[in-house]
Amino acid sequence: MAKTTTTFRCAECGWSTTKWVGRCGECQAWGTVDQAGGPSPSRRTTATSVSRTAQPIAQIDVEASRARSTAIGELDRVLGGGLVPGAVVLLAGEPGVGKSTLLLELAARWARSLATTLYVSGEESTSQIRLRADRTRAVHDSLYLAAETDLGAVLAHIDEVDPSLLVLDSVQTVGSSSVDGIPGGVTQVREVASTLVQVAKARNIPTILVGHVTKDGSIAGPRVLEHLVDVVLHFEGERDSRLRLVRAVKNRFGPVDEIGCFDLADHGIVEVPDPTGLFVSRHQQPVSGTCVTVTMEGRRPLLAEVQALVSTSEIPQPRRATSGLDPSRLAMILAVLSRRCSIHLAKSDVYAATVGGARLREPSADLATALAVASSTHDVVVPTDVVALGEVGLAGEVRRVAHLEQRLRECARLGFRRAIVPQDGSSDLSGLEALDVIRVADLAAALRAIGVGR
């Protein structure tokens, strides 16, 4: 007889061991090692009957798999045109960011097109969901609600309602009685997700699963959950801001560099097709220490305003405070201003922030930050029709940025008249005659363009 050896395998990375351990020895994940026993000798798999005959790719009909619009333009932008029949979407986000509100609005709009929609919640009762639906005006006869935490009951609802769209909130609250573990555990999440994926593919039902996130922002549960689904979306937003962003992390049917903008209002969630005004302030009088730049969120250019305040410090170590900017990049920019442009800030407090809670992570905001700091230091107003783009190097040079043409076209559309850009940008700027493009080679030249320095 063949000797049977019990093995244990990590659900995250596949690492195996002959005894159970609480922590994976490869990826260091806790609670992911489960029994995967079986006979140690390998058995050869034989051919079986096929479920469907293979066809030439040109003969396969794709009309049944065309994406259908969700009636929410910003969400369609991220999904690549809409929901594909049979696709499974995983929407993850922090608690309170508005995931349930967005999906209830999606379910209501889908139901208004006379398409049966099933919304299953494992976190709220049906009466609680109805209260939120009354507030957001998401009540429709084609929208069915169910509160279940058992996978078998969810499948029974699917058989009974036969929906054209399924929303499950959330995958971590539903468990299956056929496997061990508590709901939200590695084994349970994998079983629930794989079962619903099979049902979605077999019945051609687009399915949206809500996923929890850990304190570091990653999706809770096994990594295989992200591999099972077709689309992974992250719902992001600051607690002190009403702006919400939907960002695609994985998308088998569209781009992964698109974002959707939403406004979380009292009456629900509203899409924001043009969010530029949220990050640019309007001053009644000219103010020094401000400069506008253009950042790229996915494929979308967004204007953002950088503000700086420089004041004489009364303490031995001056303060350096930032909001929405990288503190290390601000420190580098201050060093370049001091060494290359003779703007000494060693005895000054420097405060730098963005308007509207925008987060500027890319280096293209370096030039606007430097101009804002220099403007505040010399009390020189940067004209309100000027926008600055460029990465500042340690030698004081202004380096090129990606998608320069697209950024400048957005500036021209919003009425800006001058743009300070790197000299080595090779983009085609034809059609931008209304925009005066000032090319600079270094930071000193950029400062001269706004009237600072010689």
Automatic annotation (TrEMBL):
**CC per GO annotation:** cytosol
Q: Positions of the region Lon-protease-like?
A: 349-454
The sequence motif named RadA KNRFG motif is recorded at 250-254
Coiled-coil region list: none
In this chain the RecA family profile domain maps to 64-213
* InterPro entries, per the entry: AAA+_ATPase, DNA_repair_RadA, Lon_proteolytic, P-loop_NTPase, RecA_ATP-bd, Ribosomal_Su5_D2-typ_SF, Ribsml_uS5_D2-typ_fold_subgr, Rubredoxin_2
GO BP terms, alphabetized: proteolysis; recombinational repair
Annotated CDD domains:
RadA_SMS_N
State the signal peptide span.
Answer: none
- Pfam families (UniProt xref): AAA_25, Lon_C, Zn_ribbon_LapB
Give a GO molecular function annotation for the protein.
Answer: ATP-dependent peptidase activity
Q: Which Gene3D superfamilies match?
A: 3.30.230.10, P-loop containing nucleotide triphosphate hydrolases
Please provide the record's keywords in A-Z order: ATP-binding, DNA damage, DNA repair, DNA-binding, Hydrolase, Metal-binding, Nucleotide-binding, Stress response, Zinc, Zinc-finger
Which residue stretches belong to region Disordered?
A: 32-52
The entry assigns this protein to a family as follows: Belongs to the RecA family. RadA subfamily.
Q: What does the domain comment read?
A: The middle region has homology to RecA with ATPase motifs including the RadA KNRFG motif, while the C-terminus is homologous to Lon protease.
- PANTHER family linked to this entry: DNA REPAIR PROTEIN RADA, DNA REPAIR PROTEIN RADA-LIKE PROTEIN
Query: Can you say what this protein is called?
Result: DNA repair protein RadA
Which species is listed as the source? Mumia flava
Name of the gene: radA
